[in-house]
Write a structure and sequence with these properties.
mainly alpha, single chain
């Protein structure tokens, strides 16, 4: 398995320690950190936001963009799509932008 496949596996499995080791030992992965390598053409940060806070921290430490979005043809996803409220608050604290779509969804949910 090459480094990129290991990166995808670590992200998919939520293995923050393995992800950190890979990004440290394979600097060539860093320019691909926001590439659409996951389901629905998502970057790693979008996948990590549905997993564990430690994953988000590792990706941000190695240059992932908090505003990276999927490249899915039917509409893109960001870190706030699909995460739980606790993770959303954490991501917003790390700089994730709440757009009108997210605010409207929260208002409808909280009725």
């Amino acid at each position: 398995m090459d480094a990129l496949e290991q990166f995808q596996t670590a992200v998919s499995q939520g293995d923050a320690a393995k992800l950190r080791d890979l990004l440290e030992s394979h600097p060539g992965l860093r320019p691909k950190i926001d590439a659409p390598l996951f389901h629905f053409d998502c970057p790693a940060i979008v996948v990590a936001a549905t997993r564990r806070r430690e994953m988000v921290d590792v990706l941000l430490a190695y240059g992932a963009g908090i505003h990276a979005r999927s490249a899915w043809w039917a509409g893109s996803f960001c870190v706030l799509d699909g995460c739980d409220p606790e993770m959303a608050a954490y991501l917003i604290g790390r700089g994730a932008f709440v757009d009108p779509e997210h605010e409207a969804g929260r208002q409808l949910r909280d009725r």
